[in-house]
Give the backbone structure.
Amino acid sequence: MLNNAPTPSALSLNEAGTANYSGSGSLYQNPALLINGNTSTLDFAYSSWMQDTKYIFGGANFIQGKRAFSIGIYNSKIDGFEQRNNPGDSHGEFSISYLSIAGGFAYNFDLLSVGVSGQFLNEENFLYQASGYAFNFGIASDFFDSRLKTGISLLNIGTMDNLNYEPTQLPEQFRAGFSVDVFRFSPPKNSNLPILVSTSLDYVNPLHSDSNSQIGTIETEPFVNVGLRFNIAEVVELSTGYKSGETTKPWAFGVGFITDLINVNYAIIPYETGFGTLHSIGLQYKF
């Protein structure tokens, strides 16, 4: 679950979000960005993947002057696994679920902002249950009247209790990225329709292998996430993202609708090699 951004606005850029503010969803990508919003927000997102896999996120980010406080609940659940001791009829069904309850704080020091978030983690698999904790740390800054934004984060630093025989390994990562407004233009026949083009890039270095030692350790290599956005008259936003390396989700696409009070975002990620397609929809209320 922690390998997937919780909101469609981040998913649509294929998670190139180390320098892109996404409301309370920044708890999981770079908590220093929590102070970068213009208003406080309430966020909700629902994602659906193959075999009825569901991701649900809800959070709130409160901005008070140079401080921001945020809370979030992120949950993933897969139902319908059949339990068998021997070939033949099953003895019923069970689910696999993951839960993160997070809280974060960010402070703006003018030249840069810093942030930290902590997570209580819980996982359930058949008869087995384990809990643990993790911390995220971040630094962010912007330049040239916020046309260039930068960020660095260290994610999922923590540990889990044993799940049956051994603990599940957390996806610890180092991230560094930027977001830049490339240029603004208006169509020749409609000068009142400004379009802002911006791009984002994240360098991601996994700090450990991403596989369970029960099935062998496979060291992961650093990869890059690249995002591209077209903001049309600050009303509609079209976005896409590319992830390099050996991945089952190289491309992502999204659309957002922006109002003074509510943002609505949708993202779609077509996985490769039979992993289906992820659909995500989210609402952000600004207050």
Summary: Residues 89 and 233 are 59 Å apart (CA to CA). Confidence is low (pLDDT under 50) at residues 212-219.
